[in-house]
Design a protein that fits this description.
This protein has 448 residues and is an alpha/beta fold. It is 42% helix and 14% strand. The chain is built from 17 helices and 14 strands. A hairpin with a 4-residue loop joins strand 2 and strand 3 (63-66). The longest helix has 24 residues, at 339-362.
């Protein structure tokens, strides 16, 4: 038994809750007692019983203001009536077929109508798959194998995207002085790291230098313009210019990871940032709360996945790709997330971050909310946040963030374990004002 197991056992010796009992059952049949590392925190998370709007009720009957939204995938919150109805109607006709369905045409048309740059689309089942298939497409188009990503960024569990995901200050730079291609998952072949170039997010000049030296090796550059693990700070115009210049000069494909960021604009994050990527990875909200992913882009790029002429450049498919339930839920979700809803939610998020940051300053607290639109992340510092390194060296450290997360949960607010969150359309100023008050209380309590 590990020390962590002993600590969990001691915590569970207290009068057991329904969630505690569920966790004990889970530990017998699930490694770590949870299906997702991202949704686990000690001694165990509360178990969800039901959700409605922006609230989750756990097994104890406690209501939690849900700012996690299943890691930003529920733009309309829980049990959104149009989505529930769409799923019920689709399920009554059959849950899966070995044939295409009209629903996949409908969701494809809905996404492309919103985002004209995305002329064609292919569905898969997760954001991880979407990024992976976009990378495979870039390799097939360019005939190159190497991929670049930004230090600390999360793009799912594909081997190459886990490189540079987490590293300590003493191992940040490699022998050549560039950001190190650090292996994250034990057993990852060294060749994967060799074929993954790590770029600095907060230093456009250094990024430009690396791309001038190594750009000719690259099939693609993967970029999330508001990556949570990088600090949830927007990509600067200077960085975007450097990346686009390198792509044009060296024939590199630009892959925008909009698995989360698509929600930021009616036409997607690429439209908001004024960029025309070669391929875009989608997921989260396009599935309406069901498993979803997609690769989209201009028709000339998407032709690499065309199988009608024989063996495609890249085979993109799966048993449950374009599942009719997901397609129906996605159509209902996007229909309600129109330009007015996007604008209202972004405005609510801007007001929330500004009000909370002003409250932190008024209380003399070294804390800030970073983010954009309806997305936010708490940092326990008043110093500028530029990139992964500026987040990793915050003096308060991960322990303080874990304490904030636990204290917010005790008050009735659910954020992700790294204190990120997102607003959903059922929320109003009443919920954001409540959250602002809780954040100030908790930060004062933890950092006192």
């Amino acid at each position: 038994m590990t020390d962590a197991d002993r600590r969990n056992d001691s915590l569970l010796d207290a009068p057991i809750s329904r969630s505690g009992a569920a966790f004990q059952r889970a530990r017998a049949v699930i490694p770590g007692g949870s299906m997702r590392p991202s949704s686990w925190f000690p001694p165990h998370p509360p178990y969800a019983a039901r959700g409605e709007g922006c609230w989750v009720t756990d097994l104890e009957g406690r209501r939690l203001l849900d700012c996690s939204n299943n890691f930003f995938s529920l733009i309309h919150g829980h049990a959104f009536p149009p989505v529930v109805k769409a799923i019920q109607e689709a399920a009554a006709l059959g849950t899966a077929f070995g044939l295409p369905t009209p629903q996949e045409n409908g969701l494809a048309e809905a996404i492309i109508a919103r985002a004209p740059h995305l002329e064609q689309i292919r569905f898969c089942n997760s954001g991880t798959e979407a990024v992976m298939f976009a990378i495979k497409g870039a390799r097939a188009i360019t005939g190159r194998s190497a991929i670049a990503k930004f230090e600390g960024a999360y793009h799912g569990a594909y081997d190459h995207m886990e490189i540079g995901y987490e590293s300590a200050p003493g191992a940040w730079d490699g022998p050549d002085g560039d950001p190190a291609s650090t292996i994250y998952a034990r057993g990852t072949p060294a060749s994967v790291a060799d074929d993954t170039i790590i770029l600095p997010y907060g230093d456009p000049a250094r990024c430009a230098d690396i791309l001038r030296r190594k750009g000719s090796r690259l099939a693609g550059i993967v970029l999330d313009p508001l990556a949570s693990r990088i600090g949830m700070v927007p990509a600067s115009p200077e960085l975007l210019a450097v990346v686009q210049e390198a792509c044009a000069r060296d024939g590199i494909l630009l892959i925008f990871d909009e698995v989360i960021a698509f929600r930021m604009h009616h036409a997607g994050a690429h439209a908001l940032f004024g960029v025309q990527p070669d391929l875009v990875a989608l997921g989260k909200i396009i599935g309406g709360g069901l498993p979803a992913g997609a690769v989209a882009g201009p028709a000339a790029r998407m032709a690499i996945y065309d199988h009608t002429g024989g063996r495609p450049g890249v085979a993109l498919g799966g048993t449950f790709s374009a599942n009719p339930l997901t397609m129906a839920a996605g159509m209902a979700t996007l229909a309600a997330y129109d330009t007015a809803a996007v604008a209202r939610l972004a405005s609510l998020g801007d007001d929330f971050r500004q009000a909370t940051n002003a409250a932190f300053q008024a209380a003399g607290l070294k804390a800030q909310l970073a983010g954009m639109g309806a997305l936010f992340r708490l940092h326990l510092t008043d110093a500028p946040i530029r990139d992964y390194r500026s987040v990793a060296t915050i003096p308060a450290g991960k322990g303080a963030i874990a304490a904030v997360h636990a204290a917010l949960l005790a008050r009735g607010a659910l954020l992700t374990p790294n204190a990120s969150g997102a607003l959903s359309t059922p929320m109003t100023a009443a919920e954001t004002d409540l959250l602002t008050g809780w954040l100030v209380e908790v930060v004062r309590e933890v950092t006192a």
